[in-house]
Amino acid sequence: MAQTSSCPSNTSRGNPVEVATGQKVETVTDFSTEGPRPLQFIRYYRSNDNVTGNTDISKTMLGRAWRSNFDTKLGLEPSSSTLTNPFDGKTIHAVFPEGQVMAFIYNAATQQYLPAYVDASSPDVFRWLRGRTDANYVLNVDNSAQQEITIRKPDNVVYAYTFAGALKEIRWPDGYKQTIGGGGHSVQDSLGRYLDFGGNSSTGYLETLTVPGGQVIRYSYLPRIRDLNGVIIPNPGYIHDALVLEKVSYPDATPAVLTDNPTVTYHYENAEFMYALTGITDERNVRFATWVYDAQGRAISSSHAGGTETTTFAYDDVNNIRTVTNALGRQTVYKFAFGQGGSVRRLTEVDGIATANCAASDTTYAYDANGFVNQKTDAEGRITQYVNNTRGLPTSMTEGLGTPEARTTAYTWHATLSLPAQIWRHGSHPQ
Asked: Distance between CA atoms of 149 and 76, rounded to whole angstroms?
């Protein structure tokens, strides 16, 4: 389960693998328009995507482990209670496109849903441990005619959902928006551009994506569910987690001939972890990437064609240490500590081991009481100190702390958005 954190804990290395969790992650843009507000179709992969046992929340248009940038839903616990008259302790959780999970718990005293921690030790059931202060996410329930739940993320983008938890719109601060239509089968943006989703009626998964101009991208899937004898069921129909994305075919100059379309193939060859991505074959029919996993489903190596550019990962769970070895043999040690709730690892130190060609390097991080980074010491011993507000936004940043060259920059922020209102740089007037 990938819980959202404001800390620098999601460091990725190799092609790419999250160092803290060992999850293989992948981001692919299948389509994008030009301009400052592009209409896009993006796919996100996580090798361990155990989000929740609630299949309606877990399922996506792309099958197990993959999500699109429009695959986000809400779950209510308990679902029988009403949003119009919530009780103290009522919870809402959101699963975002990147596979992140954010939980919110209702506080009757403030009449607000506040961020909370999820107990990641129980993947089949969501349990909320307690409130958290290190997440700049804001949830609002609109009981007016709008009848919607909105969540504003730290990047100021707002996701709007129906009271049933389905995504209805994505909104940007400049007024640009993308609206879900046709019962989730299309997207149209405020510039008049569209995406149409064509699904298989028996599986519910995306099979065709029609983009502006009428070109079609095609998706096909691989059965990954076994019967009681351990044999993979070839035609499982719609069973949650039954299928995983295998091929994506892109349009070419001969749209009427599908057999020659450029196609990317995804491989899942680990018998124990059937949804773990083990390789990718590109449009030239060349396998250019391979991943290997340990007995816990964590990636232990990442390499390109012919074993080149190999990166390996070692896990010391007792001491919360990860060791990454790059293709040149240099080791980097990542040290973590559990933060609020005991379920989110915070990066505390990055130690680059010296080699014949590289000097040793060491970077450390410290955190304030709310869980936001308030000090960073780099490999040369230079200290940068941050004073943060309750949203995790710096009100001041001092570079070169403790030296004659120290300089401080002060900030004030928009009342609700993560946008600076004024910046005072060292020795200058407000900007």
From this structure: 11
Alpha-carbon gap, residue 238 to 364, rounded angstroms: 48
Scan for tokens 């009626």, then name that residue: 201
Contact 28, 16 (CB under 8 A): no
Q: Give the integer Cα–Cα distance in Å for 410 and 374.
A: 14
Q: What is the pLDDT of residues 25-43, one digit of tens each?
A: 999 999 999 999 999 999 9
Per-residue DSSP letter, 371 = S
CB 90 within 8 A of CB 80: no
Average pLDDT of the chain, as a whole number: 87
Contacts of 167 (CB under 8 A, 6+ apart): 70, 72, 73, 159, 160, 161, 180, 184
Query: How many whole angstroms separate alpha carbon 18 and alpha carbon 9?
Result: 9
Can you tell me the mean pLDDT for 182-211?
A: 91
What ranges make up the beta strands (E) of 212-360?
216-223, 243-249, 263-267, 279-281, 287-293, 299-304, 308-316, 321-325, 331-338, 345-352
- 82 C-beta neighbours (distance < 10 Å), count: 11
* CA atoms of 17 and 3, how far apart (whole Å): 16
User: Whole-prediction pTM value?
Assistant: 0.90
Sheet bearing 25-32, strands edge to edge: 25-32, 40-46, 66-68
Please, what sign has the CA dihedral across residues 416, 419, 424, 430?
A: negative
- Compute the distance between CA of residue 411 and CA of residue 419 in angstroms, rounded to an integer: 10
CA-based nearest residue to 41, from 175, 186, 195: 195
Cα 279 to Cα 299: distance, rounded to the nearest angstrom:
12
Using the structure block, give the residue that is written with the tokens 């699904």: 199
Domain segments of the chain as ranges: 2-381
